[in-house]
Request: fold
Amino acid sequence: MPLRDVLRGAASIADGAHQALEPAADMLPKSLRAELSAVFQSIRSTGSRLVAAPISQEQIALAGRVAKGIEQDRAAAATCAVVIGHAWHHLGHADDAGARHQLLSETLLAAQLVQLPKGAVTPTVHAAQLVRRALDGCVIGTTPRLFIHLEADEKAEITLTLLAIVVWLLSERGDSLHDEDRLVDLAMALVLATRDDALDAMRDETTLSAYLDRMSDHL
Amino acid sequence: MSLPETTAPAQEQVHKAAQRLRWFVRAFETQLEKTQTETNNRFTLDSAALAAVFAEWLHAFEAQKPVSADDKRAYVGFAAGLMLRTLITHKPARLQSRPKGADQSNPAYFWPEGYLYVAFCLNVRGTVLESDFHHAQHNSPTVDETRTWWSFRENVEQDPSLAIAFLDLFAGDEPEWTMPELFRSGKLREIASRFYCAPTLDDN
Reply:
C-alpha cells in the first residue's frame, strides 16, 4: 500500500510540475517541449494506472462493514482504505472533478481507521467519526500529513467528496463493480445536490450522523 | 402515450424504491429511451440536474408526508405531481432534435421535454398505485389533447406548482387548482370543499 501512495505522489507531482512549467515551456525549442510533455504524461499515466488497483465486490462489502463499525481489525481497516482510495481516484477522474485532484494517502487513512473508537455506537455515528478522523488526520491534501494551507473551497470539496464516499459505503451494495462505480457517482451527485446541508452537517457528530443516515438511505 | 416498466426489487414496495436515487435515475433513463424510440425525439440528459431534481423532490416529499395511513394513496398522486413540478423547474432533459416534419399539434412534438416528464410521472404514479395500493390509474383523454397541453405549458411557465394539478387531470383524478402545492388530507379536503368551489380547467 505505501508503494501506491508513492506512485500517487509521483503522478500528482508530474501533474503539478507540468502545469507550473507550461508558461515557461513556450521559451523551449518545439522538439524539447514535446519531449518534456511526453515525459510528464508518461509519469502521470504510469502512476495513475498503478495507483488504481482493481478491487472486488467482497472488498467493497468489507469496507462497508468497516464504515459501519462492524469490522474493526487492522486488515479490514487496510482494505477499507484501499476501497476509499479507489473511489477517490474514480471521482477524481470524473468530468466535473474540480478540486478532487487532492491526494489521499491510503496508508495514513488505514492508520486513522484502526484508531476509531471501538464499542457500541450506531453505524452512522461510527461513519461520522470516520469522516471526522480522516479530515482531522490530514490524510487528504496536496501533500497528506503536512499541514499545507488549503483554500476554503478546496476544503469544502475534500469534505463533500469524502462524505459522498462514506454515503456510498453505508448504502446497499450494487450488483456489480460497474454498478458500484455508478453508485459512487450518484452519491457524489446527491451530496453536491445537498451541498449546504452536507457542509452544515459537519458542525457536530449527531447532525453528521443524521445526514449520512438520510443520504445513504436514499441513494 | 405508452409507458415502460419501472419495477422495484422483489422484496421492496415500489413507493419505497422510488425514494432512492439509484431507482429514480434508472427509471428516468428507461423512460427517456422509451420516449426516444416512440417519438424519434432525441434528448440529452444532465445527470447532475437529475440528482438535484431528486434531492429537491425528496425534501418537498418529506415536508408534507401524511401521518394517517388513509392519506397514503392520495399522497402518491401528490408526490408524483411534486416530481413533475421539480422536473419542469430543473429541466434535466434537453431536446436535441425532433424528426423532420413532426406534427407539432401532437403533445410529444409540441413540448417534447414536457411530454417526457409527464410520461415519467404518470408511469411512476400508475405503477406505485397499482403495485402497492392495488388501484388502477385510468389516464384521462386530456393527456393527448393539444388544447390542454397549450394551457399546461403556459400555466406551468408562470406557476410550476400547477403541474401538480395538471398531473392529476392527466391521470384522471380531480385536480386541486387552488394552492395545488399543499397536500390536503382526506378530512381537510372535505372541509375545504365546503368553502371553495373547484374551478375548471377553462378558468386557468
